[in-house]
Amino acid sequence: MREEEWNREYPRRVAEEQAGAPDAHRPPAAQTQAEPAPVGFTYYVGRGILVPLARLIYRPRIEGRGNIPRTGKVIFASNHLSFIDSLVIPMFSPRPVYFLAKSSYFDGTGVKGWLSRHFFTAIGATPVERGAGQAALDALDQQRRILHSGRAIALYPEGTRSLDGRLYKGRTGVAFLALEESAQVVPVGIIGTNEAMPVGAKYPKRHPRVIVRYGEPIDLSHLGAANSGRARRLATDEIMAAIHALSGQELAGTYNESPASNPVERLKQVLPHERR
């Protein structure tokens, strides 16, 4: 599914679902996918072990925990520098935070598979099939279901990790979810994780000290409805400005996109279009 089709398709599917209309284009499995289960025993035991251990070894500096709403729909919108960003955000939050992780982390066999499955469950991860087209739509649907149940999720508006440490322009998917579900957005600024665990590293280093800053929650409802492209863009820019204020990163002024593989893809990146 092409990106411009994806941008049209998801709002249409949400509208049909709210109206109670079946979506003939979706496979039955996607229509009946169960809501992710609430965190349970493994999550709380894991936090009881991992959080004190991480504090002892890595001495992270956590700021703004009091800004996090203890109940209700919340999206943690963060900059993204390293794999461990998805660990530090939920580990040091006073409430459970869900994020999507590759389903392969949960499907392994033997002792390694058991450890991987329980580790990711312990930090609030939910499995998802990665990919474009239908897989991307299903992932967004899954995030919306989690929010709809009054829980919190963590997302990266940049879309992928920043390899040069700069803060890239935000994509509008986070804003769409926030506006659609009337969720508060807690901006997060993470500093130092790209040095603590660079791309390719197997384990995090003890230095430098990682800093996690939770900002004040943002209510975006005054900007308009989720089906308004202008509202999504304004909401995204407000979220990114808050993240920038917390992280202090240099602004890239462009989207964090993979190099175009052919002239058509290069043209699509240059032409104005909404990035989700």
From TrEMBL:
Sequence intervals crossing the membrane: none
Region Disordered: start-end pairs: 1-34
A single MF term (Gene Ontology): acyltransferase activity
CDD domains: LPLAT_AGPAT-like (cd07989)
Domain Phospholipid/glycerol acyltransferase: 74-193
Extent of Basic and acidic residues compositional bias: 1-16
Protein keywords: Acyltransferase, Transferase
Protein name: 1-acyl-sn-glycerol-3-phosphate acyltransferase
Organism for this UniProt entry: Microbacterium flavum
